[in-house]
Amino acid sequence: MNRVEEGTYGVVYRAKDKRTGETVALKRLKMEKEKEGFPITSLREISSLLKVKHENIVTVREIVVGSNMDKIYLVMDFVEHDLKSLMETMKKPFLLGEVKTLMLQLLRAVAHLHDNWILHRDLKTSNLLLSHKEYTSVVVTLWYRAPELLLQAPQYSFPIDNWSVGCIFGEFVIMRPLFQGKSEIDQLNIMFKELGTPNEKIWPGYSELPLVNKMTFAEFPYNSLHNRIGHKLGKSGFDLINRFLTYCPERRITADEALRHEFFTESPLPVDPALFPTWPAKSEGGQHRKAPSPKAPSGGKQFQRNQLDDSTFASEERHLRELSSDLELFDELIVVFTLQGASFISQSMDLFSKKSNAELASLFECPVCFEYILPPILQCQNGHLVCQSCRKMITTCPTCRVQITTNIRNLQMEKMASGIFFPCKYSVHGCKSQLTYQEKPGHEDSCSHKPYICPCPGTSCKWQGPIDQVMPHLMSQHKSITTLEGEDIVFLATDINLSGAVDWVMIQSCFSHHFMLVLEKQEKYGRQQFYAVVQIIGSEMQAANFIYRLELSGHKRRLIWEATPKSILDGVQTAINTNDCLVFDTTLAQRFSENGNLGINVTICPM
């Protein structure tokens, strides 16, 4: 129909889909300068990564390859306006309610990207597309670049997008960019003048950033931005933009957190998108859109150093990166998403150092139980993860609510897991171990920080603590418990004819371990039953190294039970509920007892 835009590596046209009659944006990639052509493997990667569907993210309908490799097209939804061009022509600024509506839609899109492990890296108003279809589509330029990028931090992650959102937020309000630097140093000076010069107190690690060690910045008083924009936003609005424009990336607000901010629930409320004014689409008249904002950052020296050595992949990556460096409007949105999604998933351990290991590990948290999901990793049809234990109990995805009909393994995430160190599940109790997923189960089974509850049955003791404190607790707080030494002892339960629920407890020490012997009398299945259990004061792994034998004998009769001890973590009741213990009724108890006292021979043997 007409040409909308031309860049170094492609031309965008407004076209009509003959099948549906809809207007679409058609981008033809320029390939004549590429000797090797555009690798088909990269096309497959783009095709898969562009399946991120959201109402506030412009849709890539398909990728079309012509008869020759120089005819490659991206077919996308046509969106009438980019906000940068639109705001340049508006005579009046957006109302605060309209700003809230735009911000909500932007935040929903960014949150969706981050939930799907995609780092945009180039959020700016020229990459925000405003449609008459009642939604805004998100498609880092210097003016929107986070301070950690400007100061040449070797690692960065999702917070750089959230800083850009804060800059866009301010631009919506004052109708011009917040920080308009002419160079990276000028950008930093303007930023520091508005927000105050950072220091170690407000940004831990600031003094270690590469550019900070090379330069001396002027000292400005903290945050004079309120004088410029605070009166237009109100107290909660200024609080929100301050949280976006927080120097320390770890303290910067996330998109999910921002969506829950009180700014969006107080008067004036967000405007219904259907009530937004409309503007004619200039591209329909054959006019080209204005030149876009400057290009996105290429990723920095650290990013370039961390590229994979494989020459084939590097070649494909180079093609993608060259394409992304001049992607305008629709394509900047689409291919930048593709490139950064691929980098984040496939090369995450190359792009991030151990400093961000915790952030990577958090991607593996199960949305149901919040435990880490370890290989084999299962997902729903839309790619959302769930751990194996929870998968057995659910029929719909807890994230997107799609019906789960089969087990789908996520091999890419399994590969990614092999390069991550996961914290011990008992880190909240003081364990500082960082473990591979292969090491994690074994370590946690015997972790010295694992909290054990008091193993004494029939008591209201609320004590809990590490394994090495269990015996001291028993000796000091439960002094009635007898302790016997040796691998072969007699456990004597007195007054077994007492009515009601009764328990008898004794400790047996041998082979450098302590074992708790428990005999419980309780009513089950309408009659009195006795349950005899042996537990090791230790982990399941330690219990697996032993076998115990319980023997009742007398009157020329013998009853024997052999099994592996339980860990005190399992609890006596677990063994009773599963009948995984010596079980006998009152009739047998009377047959083996003398004068109401029952002796049980207990033998502990190593496996």
Automatic annotation (TrEMBL):
Residues 282-306 are annotated as: Disordered. Residues 1-264 form the Protein kinase domain. Residues 419-479 form the SIAH-type domain. GO terms for biological process: cell differentiation; proteasome-mediated ubiquitin-dependent protein catabolic process; protein ubiquitination; visual perception. It is an enzyme of class 2 (transferase). One of its GO terms (cellular component) is cytoplasm. PROSITE patterns: PROTEIN_KINASE_DOM, PROTEIN_KINASE_ST, ZF_RING_2, ZF_SIAH. Pathway: Protein modification; protein ubiquitination. Its EC number is 2.3.2.27. Keywords: ATP-binding, Kinase, Metal-binding, Nucleotide-binding, Sensory transduction, Serine/threonine-protein kinase, Transferase, Ubl conjugation pathway, Vision, Zinc, Zinc-finger. The keyword Iron does not apply. InterPro entries: 7-in-absentia-prot_TRAF-dom, CDK11/PITSLRE_STKc, Kinase-like_dom_sf, Prot_kinase_dom, Ser/Thr_kinase_AS, SINA-like_animal, Sina-like_RING, TRAF-like. It catalyses: S-ubiquitinyl-[E2 ubiquitin-conjugating enzyme]-L-cysteine + [acceptor protein]-L-lysine = [E2 ubiquitin-conjugating enzyme]-L-cysteine + N(6)-ubiquitinyl-[acceptor protein]-L-lysine; L-seryl-[protein] + ATP = O-phospho-L-seryl-[protein] + ADP + H(+); L-threonyl-[protein] + ATP = O-phospho-L-threonyl-[protein] + ADP + H(+). Residues 366-401 form the RING-type domain. It comes from the Eukaryota. One of its GO terms (molecular function) is ubiquitin conjugating enzyme binding. Component of some E3 complex at least composed of sina, ebi and phyl. Interacts with eff. E3 ubiquitin-protein ligase that is required for specification of R7 photoreceptor cell fate in the eye by mediating the ubiquitination and subsequent proteasomal degradation of Tramtrack (ttk). E3 Ubiquitin ligases accept ubiquitin from an E2 ubiquitin-conjugating enzyme in the form of a thioester and then directly transfers the ubiquitin to targeted substrates. E3 ubiquitin-protein ligase that mediates ubiquitination and subsequent proteasomal degradation of target proteins. E3 ubiquitin ligases accept ubiquitin from an E2 ubiquitin-conjugating enzyme in the form of a thioester and then directly transfers the ubiquitin to targeted substrates. The SBD domain (substrate-binding domain) mediates the interaction with substrate proteins. It is related to the TRAF family. Belongs to the protein kinase superfamily. CMGC Ser/Thr protein kinase family. CDC2/CDKX subfamily. This is E3 ubiquitin-protein ligase. It comes from Euroglyphus maynei (Mayne's house dust mite). The lineage of its organism: Eukaryota, Metazoa, Ecdysozoa, Arthropoda, Chelicerata.
